[in-house]
Amino acid sequence: YLQAGGSVTNQSGGMITGFDGIYGAASAALMVVNAGGIAGNTTAGHGIYLGEGGSVANQSGATVSGFRAIFGAASAALMVVNAGSIAGNATSGFGIELDGGGSVTNQSGATVSGFRGVFGGAGGPFSTVLPLTVANFGSIAGDATHGFAIELDSGGSITNQSTAMISGYDGIFT
């Protein structure tokens, strides 16, 4: 639990686990660099919870998992760059949920998955709703029966590169 923001670096071979693997409070931005594994509870927890925005760099070979693997609260935008694997609960969770907008760059060879792969939420009554920008060079997948690979409830833009894959019951839902 990081009350006043700052940074967390998880080295290759390192593992961070808990109900919420990393929890950044709503008082300051947090920067997370992951080269190992970060895991939250898969029925209700978060791999990484950022209450006041910041950034997440998930490096090649690194993993983040949880009910919501990465969650950015509606209070601030969050930037996610993924070169590894980000996996939310496949039956009802989210790979990446950014309620305050921001950006997701999913690099070549990287994967994001969950019932909803990437979700740009509508924010809350006290938030400034910001759009989400998604650039996909890898694979973003939602549940093939009822899920969405990418859902943008507050608008934004999606760029899917020529060798990239977006798949789900609905590939893109806006």
Measured by DSSP, the beta-strand proportion falls in over 45%
Structural class, please? mainly beta
The low-pLDDT segments are none
Distance between the termini: 34 Å
Helix tally equals 0
Spatial order of strands in the largest sheet: 1-4-7-10-13-16-19
Overall mean pLDDT: 94
Shape: globular
> Sheet with the most strands?
7 strands, parallel
- Write the H/E string, N to C: EEEEEEEEEEEEEEEEEEEEE
Number of strands: 21
Helix content: under 10%
Radius of gyration: 14 Å
Describe the structure.
It is a single chain. The chain is mainly beta and 174 residues long. The chain has no helices and 21 strands. It has strands at 6-10, 15-17, 22-24, 30-34, 37-39, 46-50, 54-58, 63-66, 68-72, 78-82, 85-88, 94-98, 102-106, 111-113, 116-120, 132-136, 139-141, 148-152, 156-160, 165-167, 170-173. Strands 1-4-7-10-13-16-19 form a seven-stranded parallel beta sheet, with no helix packed on it. A seven-stranded parallel beta sheet has the order 2-5-8-11-14-17-20, with no helix packed on it. The termini are far apart. The model has no long low-confidence stretch (mean pLDDT 94).
State the gist of this model.
With 174 residues, the chain is mainly beta.
Entry keywords:
single chain, 174 residues, mainly beta, seven-stranded parallel sheet, globular
Question: Strands, helices and their partners?
Answer:
Blueprint: E1 6-10, E2 15-17, E3 22-24, E4 30-34, E5 37-39, E6 46-50, E7 54-58, E8 63-66, E9 68-72, E10 78-82, E11 85-88, E12 94-98, E13 102-106, E14 111-113, E15 116-120, E16 132-136, E17 139-141, E18 148-152, E19 156-160, E20 165-167, E21 170-173
Parallel strand pairs: 1-4, 2-5, 3-6, 4-7, 5-8, 6-9, 7-10, 8-11, 9-12, 10-13, 11-14, 12-15, 13-16, 14-17, 15-18, 16-19, 17-20, 18-21
